Automatic annotation (TrEMBL), chain A:
Lineage: Archaea, Nitrososphaerota, Nitrososphaeria, Nitrosopumilales, Nitrosopumilaceae
Keyword Ion transport: no
InterPro entries: Acetalactate_synth_ssu, Acetolactate_synth/TF_NikR_C, Acetolactate_synth_ssu_C, ACT-like_dom_sf, ACT_dom, AHAS_ACT, AHAS_small-like_ACT
Protein's name in the database: Acetolactate synthase small subunit
Domain of life: Archaea
Length: 160, 565
């Protein structure tokens, strides 16, 4: 199963290394990771998505919680959480119609188009990983020249 | 002291350690920790000089396990720091309290590949409970305070404090805080009365209940509570190897350690039990064999201070999180209040006693006069019950598991998690420093002892008279046994050909060296060693072909023991 973990950590050098090393050392895998400071500069928030069975996810949460630099570890319920990932796709334009077609596709997914050139353009898409994956599949026939993804950022909905 | 007195980081470190009650440290000086070493001239902390930093860490580890206060070791930067990593990792694997202090190049040189620079924080992080690197002198007092607190509370472990050289020499106003907060660290939990009650209920309804006591019982000194519960519920007690001696091994309910080299009766009864009260154990593969076979048929009640241990290796029906002594006390109280006391007349108890008696009678031992069982039983016979024993790692360690009975709980220590060869002798030195009034014996093999035998210099020059009980089969015995058993006797890299002569080696360091080739000589040697005021190595040549049996092969279950033929 896929799990979203929200980890509040002290904003100190080396914490990212410790967290990622924990995953490696315990034989877990990181699907995506995003990190940024919070409204309080003493803390950073990491959002890690991972795969595993129930026992593995529970163990990951416990091991993260055990770390002295982690202030709070939460496993977020996918259905009660807003989660998004920013992605940038550089897409090949092979003929005159491609630009219009890619624009339509980007609009359908709420994306923005940047850096339009004769032979390529860039689409910025903020969406769930599933939506990004779907966009990627539809964009593949045009030719994807490059992709950059940020990893998921997530917050639980109020009252959830 | 004026709270904001100016002082250097080095002096602040020593002052803060004195406030923590540190009386001695084990270490080796070098360029990057000299400012701290200079402070030993001006404080009351004794410095015990080692010959290798790995031994400093093992000595601190031995001290910490016996005193249950963090042992302290010092090393310089670069290779000094990397040398103590094995000792730190050993302490981490066995949850031993330790504070390791390393020197580091100056802050402005960090990351420049300076002479004797190593990223020791990066290297150590996976094997420490926490690591600090103060970047200014004024941080030092709080770092030391937090370091000792983290090392000794909750599940104990090693803490590294890496101090850049300019942080040691800079003079700044110092505040020694009495209080501090570590937001993400919550080492204590309230007693879990609800789950303790459920655990009692489960144990009372089980037909074949058993206690599995781990190292957590020793760490939290829950000996009396464990014994009260075992006696009230007439529960047989097996231990993990790290838990050896959590329960008196001469007690009628004791079956001794389970596992790869556990007692036959302990493995048999563990394999037959239907419910286990597992206390302070992580269910190591060496203890329980294959996890799947173990948990399929058992109801497990797991008590542990570390929530992450619950469900890590074994799923538990009931989890009791918190200090095991605190929760065992709750259990004792409930048992007393409800006047719960089981009779000795249960079929399970009778079966346990019969099985135990059978294996005590029928386990085949080495026929020679100097077989391991006879040697270790002789040692047990002559040592006062409060003596402390450490072991090296290898065959001798497992013979100690099988044949050396711990009478007084909490007097047996070994490197059980990382399995570090060379641990026992320096750890014995640390143990002797912690408890100078009791005999301390390192049960050793020649392969393991070879790795840190230069600690004889420390033992002699620092007047720390420990005894090395050296079962010398002139080989790396456990590896040789595996090669005999699993590699069709293709022996590679295991023979040591009686080199060195350990009697002469001991004497060259100024220690006492005695060779014992008969039981009479051994009897005399042990008595001489116990009455000696210098470290003594008793070299005992043994049969290189003697195996440790019973043996549970890796990847099999406890019921699949290889027994002596």
């Amino acid at each position: 199963m896929w799990a979203i973990l929200s980890i509040l950590v002290e904003n100190k050098p080396g914490i990212l290394f410790k967290v990622t090393h924990l995953f490696r050392a315990r034989n877990f895998n990181i699907d995506s990771i995003s990190v940024g400071t919070t409204e309080n500069p003493d803390y950073s928030k990491m959002t890690i998505t991972t795969y595993g069975d129930e026992k593995q996810i529970t163990q990951i949460v416990k091991q993260l919680d055990k770390m002295i630099d982690t202030v709070k570890v939460e496993r977020l319920d996918e259905h009660k959480t807003v989660f998004r990932e920013l992605s940038l796709f550089k897409i090949k334009l092979s003929n005159a119609n491609d630009s219009m077609e890619v624009n339509k596709l980007a609009n359908a997914y709420g994306g923005k188009v940047h850096d339009v050139k004769k032979d390529s353009l860039m689409v910025e898409l903020t969406a769930t990983p599933d939506q990004i994956k779907a966009f990627e599949e539809l964009a593949k026939p045009f030719g994807i020249l490059d992709v950059a993804r940020t990893g998921v950022a997530a917050l639980q909905r109020s009252g959830a | 002291m004026n709270k904001m007195e100016n002082m250097t980081g080095a002096k602040a470190l020593m002052t803060a350690m004195e406030k923590e009650g540190v009386k001695q440290v084990f270490g080796l000086p070098g360029g990057a920790n000299l400012p701290m070493y200079d402070e030993f001239n001006r404080c009351d902390i004794r410095h015990i000089l080692v010959r290798h930093e790995q031994s400093a860490a093992h000595m601190a580890d031995g001290f910490g396990r016996v005193s249950r206060k963090p042992g302290v070791c010092f090393a310089t930067s670069g290779p000094g720091a990397t040398n103590i990593l094995t000792g730190i990792a050993t302490a981490q694997a066995d949850s031993a309290p330790m504070v390791a202090v390393t020197g580091q190049v100056s802050v402005n040189m960090i990351g420049k590949d300076a002479f004797q620079e190593s990223d020791i924080i990066g290297m150590a992080n996976p094997v420490v409970k926490y690591a600090f690197q103060p970047r200014s002198a004024s941080e030092v007092p709080e770092v030391v305070k937090k370091g000792f607190f983290i090392a000794e509370t909750g599940r104990p472990g090693p803490v590294l404090i890496d101090v850049p050289k300019d942080v040691q020499t800079n003079e700044e106003p110092m505040n020694f805080p009495d209080e501090f907060k570590i937001q993400g660290y919550h080492p204590w939990a309230d007693p879990d009365i609800v789950n303790v009650e459920k655990a009692i209920d489960m144990l009372l309804h089980a037909e074949k209940p058993i206690i599995l006591a781990g190292g957590g019982v020793i760490i939290s000194s829950a000996f009396a509570e464990l014994q009260s519960i075992a006696e009230a519920l007439m529960l047989p007690v097996v231990t993990t190897f790290k838990g050896k001696g959590a329960f008196p091994e001469t007690h009628p309910l004791s079956l001794g350690p389970i596992g790869m080299h556990g007692h036959a009766e302990a493995n048999k009864m563990m394999a037959e039990a239907d419910c286990v009260l597992a206390i302070g154990t992580r269910f190591s593969d060496r203890s329980v064999g294959t996890f799947e076979a173990f948990e399929k048929r058992l109801k497990i009640i797991h008590m542990d201070v570390d929530p992450a241990e619950i469900g890590k290796n074994q799923n538990a029906q009931i989890a009791v999180i918190g200090d095991v002594r605190v929760n065992l006390r709750v259990m004792v109280k409930i048992l007393l209040q409800k006047a719960i006391r089981k009779s000795e007349e249960t079929p399970w108890f009778k079966h346990v006693q019969e099985t135990k008696a059978y294996w005590k009678e029928n386990l085949k031992l080495h026929p020679g006069e100097m077989g391991a069982a006879k040697l270790l039983r002789k040692l047990r016979e002559l040592l006062p019950k409060e003596s402390i024993v450490t072991t090296e790692v290898g065959q001798h360690q497992m013979w100690a598991s099988l044949f050396y009975d711990v009478i007084q709980p909490g007097t047996f220590f070994s490197s059980t998690g990382l399995g570090t060869m060379g641990w026992g002798f320096p750890a014995a030195i640390g143990a002797k420093v912690a408890k100078p009034d009791v005999p301390v014996v390192d049960i050793a093999g020649d392969g393991s002892f070879s790795m840190t035998e230069n600690s004889l210099a420390t033992a002699v020059l620092e007047d720390i008279p420990v005894i090395v009980f050296l079962l010398n089969n002139s080989s790396l015995g456990m590896v040789a046994q595996w090669q005999r058993t699993f590699y069709d006797r293709r022996m590679t890299g295991v023979e040591q050909h009686s080199c060195p002569d350990y009697v002469k080696l001991a004497q060259s360091y100024g220690a006492q060296g005695i060779r014992a080739q008969s039981m009479d000589e051994l009897d005399k040697a042990i008595k001489d060693a116990l009455s000696s005021d210098v470290a003594t190595v008793i070299d005992i040549p043994i049969d290189p072909e003697e195996d440790v049996l019973p043996f549970v092969a890796p990847g099999t279950s406890l019921s699949d023991m290889i027994l002596p033929s």
